[in-house]
């Protein structure tokens, strides 16, 4: 054996560090620690098993201690069936050898951990979350200098799903001939992921994207909530804090009047709108939309808005900012008799756009947006950045953490 390895009573990270240092694999050690930290962050984000992801990432490259010219003979000795890619490039055996070492030398017997190690380069058919997290962490925290050429693709697809991020990486590698010789596992993973994404609708080609405005496109929290506190004082003679009124942030205006028990709802709501329009700060565009709107327009995807805003508010918040230039249709408070969560506003918008229900996705930040999408039988994208309560919304087709994450829809739409 031309490498050094031994049992140790210390924790796994320390043991891995010792072994890699003993075998003069300092570059690999640096890479492994970066991948392990990346895998831990992704496991938290995707509610996966943090410890298993961390263990697999720490051991994913432990076979670096074995000289590459010994790998093929080692695999033959183990009686393994060797893929053609590994026959041509034996170093590709490193993922299976790392899994073997994790089991034999480090006492790892968890099948999910060993699986993630064994496919960390190629992935495989029916990959689990831990497999995909370690696979992607290895690509994000790559072992070369500079920024990975595919990093933006992965980061754009990740908010959609782990499957989308894995598939788009493999697609990029195959289409740009960045793979020396495709391993059978990689080809099977590529096709398997594509079928799963198609079944989930994630590879869907959207013709139109409809946005909510408040809390989705525009940050209107302060300009709505502080005037509401003034209305409550005037109408109810009660002093409410900013935190007290936050629960109304996602409600349509008249719904707020009902919840507060205001007697003259329409007159009071009109006065609230006056206070909102006069609010000094005004509405601000969420960072990222200055890129998102032109990108969808360039991709030939129709954009529209459905909002409970009045036409006067829309003039101030959207038209005066030049944002209406991106919108083919705007359905506002005066355009329908019913409002979200009723589907009427969305259905009216879709009718005017002349597209099918299956070709549309609605992007919003509130439960009423999710319910309206459900009632209209269209896909829903949860704009989590605008939900002040940070609540989970059931039934979302996608969850987006920031506006730029929406660009992941372009990849699916323009394939």
Automatic annotation (TrEMBL):
The EC category is hydrolase
| Entry-linked Pfam families | HAD_2, HD
State the SUPFAM superfamilies in the record: HAD-like (SSF56784), HD-domain/PDEase-like (SSF109604)
Keywords of this entry: Hydrolase, Iron, Metal-binding, Nucleotide-binding
Q: Which domain of life is it from?
A: Bacteria
Reactions performed catalytically: P(1),P(4)-bis(5'-adenosyl) tetraphosphate + H2O = 2 ADP + 2 H(+)
Q: Describe the location of the HD/PDEase domain by residue ranges.
A: 24-152
Q: Supply one GO molecular-function term.
A: bis(5'-nucleosyl)-tetraphosphatase (symmetrical) activity
Q: What are its E.C. numbers? A: 3.6.1.41
**Record PANTHER family:** BIS(5'-NUCLEOSYL)-TETRAPHOSPHATASE, SYMMETRICAL, SLR1885 PROTEIN
UniProt name for this protein? bis(5'-nucleosyl)-tetraphosphatase (symmetrical)
Q: Which organism is it from?
A: Allocoprobacillus halotolerans
Per UniProt, what is the name of the gene that codes for the protein in this document?
yqeK
């Amino acid at each position: 054996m031309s490498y050094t390895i031994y049992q140790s009573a210390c924790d796994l990270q320390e043991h891995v560090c010792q072994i890699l240092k003993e075998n003069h694999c300092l570059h690999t050690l640096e890479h492994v620690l970066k991948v392990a930290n990346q895998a831990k962050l992704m496991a938290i984000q995707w509610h996966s098993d943090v410890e298993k992801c961390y263990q697999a990432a720490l051991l994913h490259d432990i076979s670096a201690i074995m000289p590459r010219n010994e790998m093929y003979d080692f695999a033959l000795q183990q009686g393994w069936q060797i893929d053609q890619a590994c026959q041509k490039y034996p170093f590709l055996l490193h993922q299976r050898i790392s899994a073997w070492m994790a089991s034999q030398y480090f006492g790892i017997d968890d099948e999910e951990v060993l699986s993630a190690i064994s496919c960390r380069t190629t992935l495989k058919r029916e990959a689990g979350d831990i497999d995909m997290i370690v696979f992607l962490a290895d690509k994000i925290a790559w072992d070369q200098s500079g920024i990975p050429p595919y990093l933006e693709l992965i980061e754009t697809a990740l908010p959609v799903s782990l499957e989308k991020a894995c598939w788009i990486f493999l697609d990029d590698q195959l289409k740009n001939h960045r793979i020396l010789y495709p391993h059978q596992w990689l080809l099977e993973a590529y096709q398997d992921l594509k079928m799963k994404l198609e079944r989930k609708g994630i590879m869907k080609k959207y013709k139109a994207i409809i946005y909510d405005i408040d809390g989705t496109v525009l940050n209107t929290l302060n300009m709505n909530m502080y005037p509401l506190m003034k209305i409550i004082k005037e109408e109810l003679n009660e002093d409410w804090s900013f935190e007290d009124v936050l629960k109304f942030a996602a409600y349509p205006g008249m719904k707020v009047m009902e919840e507060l028990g205001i007697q003259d709802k329409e007159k009071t709501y009109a006065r609230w709108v006056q206070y909102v329009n006069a609010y000094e700060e005004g509405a601000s565009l969420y960072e990222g939309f200055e890129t998102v709107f032109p990108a969808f327009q360039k991709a030939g995807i129709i954009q529209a808005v459905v909002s409970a805003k009045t036409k006067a508010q829309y003039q101030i918040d959207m038209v005066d900012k030049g944002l209406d230039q991106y919108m083919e249709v705007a359905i506002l408070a005066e355009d329908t008799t019913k409002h979200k969560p009723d589907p009427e506003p969305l259905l009216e918008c879709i009718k005017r756009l002349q597209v099918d229900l299956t070709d549309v996705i609605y992007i919003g930040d509130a439960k009423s947006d999710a319910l309206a999408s459900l009632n209209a039988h269209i896909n829903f994208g949860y704009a989590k950045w605008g939900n002040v309560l940070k609540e989970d919304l059931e039934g979302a087709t996608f969850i987006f953490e920031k506006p730029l994450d929406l660009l992941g829809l372009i990849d699916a739409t323009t394939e």
